[in-house]
Each structure stands twice: as C-alpha cells, then as structure tokens.
Q: What sequence folds into this?
C-alpha cells in the first residue's frame, strides 16, 4: 500500500512538472522581444525536432476562412501562420525549442518541390533552421502551423499572444480576430512571449 502511494506521488509530481512546462510555453508566443540571441538549439528537445519534421509539406494552397478571408494553408488544409518576432528582410527565424513544439515549422525536403495553388510561386522560398531542416517562407516570412489546430481550416492560432497571424497569399498578416465561438481560449503567460526562452 505504501509503495502504491509512493508511485502515485511520483506520477502526480510528473504531471505537475509537465503542466508547468506547458504553461511556460504559454499560448504560443515564441520569443521575448524577438531577440535571436536568446534562441536555443532544437537538438536539446526531441519533441521539437519531431514536431518540426512532422509538418513537412510539398504544397502551399489557399482556403477561405470565415471572418478571416483567404489564408494560406499547407497541402492538408491546415492554416499557416507567421510570427511577429521573425523578420522577412532579411529572413530570420525566432521560434525554436519549446516554441517550436507548439508552433511547428512548415518544412520541406527541397525548395523546388514546393508547389503552389493560388499563391505566386516567386514569393515562396526557404530558410535553414538551426536543426538543419528547411523551413518554407512566403515573401520572406517563415511559415508555421499551430499544434492546437487539429483539423484543417481551424484558425485557433490567429492572434495568439498578439504576435501570431494567419498569412495571406501575398505574405501579409491577417490581423482580424478569429471567431471565438469554437476556438479554445489560448493560455498566455502575461509576458507577451512565453515561448519557452
């Protein structure tokens, strides 16, 4: 009986540690102020690499989302986002480590293999991430998925932390709030970042 209570205590402690780690990730902000000097290499997090490579796509297309308009999606119909802490000129990636677990990079195995539908192919390029993967960019902006978008055309990441935005076919960000009727309320850390840096 004592041993069972002891094991249960460890399980509860483990669950609490996991909850705190996820809370530190916040609603999805990926950095604090966008400083690239605070990025960490994703090799330290196996889950980050799995998330980033798990979002590989070979197609960018568009979809019409109520209240947002025309957005860019991957080949499976998942909404793609850009992050205000990144930059387009020059292209800079700021979302690594814990941030990348919640906001996996839209990656490809080869820039030439990305096809487009409804998007000017000349706006599509790539950037190398710290882990060596190739992230797709649109008009210079690195593209991401949101892990909480578990169905195609779900824009739950829209406006998270005031820094994550669905992207238009021209690479511009959509700042219209997403409908809140079906979207889960994102947790935030109150710092505006909370991406685990």
A:
């Amino acid at each position: 009986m004592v041993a069972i209570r002891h094991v249960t205590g460890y399980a509860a402690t483990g669950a609490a540690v996991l909850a705190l780690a996820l809370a530190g990730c916040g609603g999805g902000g990926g950095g604090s102020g966008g400083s690239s000097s605070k990025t960490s290499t994703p090799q330290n997090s196996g889950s980050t690499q799995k998330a980033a490579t798990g979002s590989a796509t070979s197609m960018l297309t568009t979809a019409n989302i109520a209240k947002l308009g025309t957005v860019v999606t991957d080949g499976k119909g998942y909404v793609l986002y850009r992050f205000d802490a990144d930059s387009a000129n020059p292209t800079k990636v700021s979302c690594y480590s814990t941030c990348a677990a919640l906001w996996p990079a839209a990656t490809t195995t080869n820039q030439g293999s990305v096809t487009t539908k409804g998007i000017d192919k000349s706006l599509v390029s790539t950037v190398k991430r710290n882990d060596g993967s190739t992230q797709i960019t649109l008009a210079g902006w690195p593209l991401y998925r949101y892990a909480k978008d578990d169905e195609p055309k779900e824009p739950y990441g829209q406006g998270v932390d005031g820094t994550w935005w669905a992207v238009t076919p021209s690479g511009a960000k959509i700042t219209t709030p997403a409908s809140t009727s079906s979207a889960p309320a994102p947790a935030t850390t109150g710092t505006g970042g909370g991406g685990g840096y």
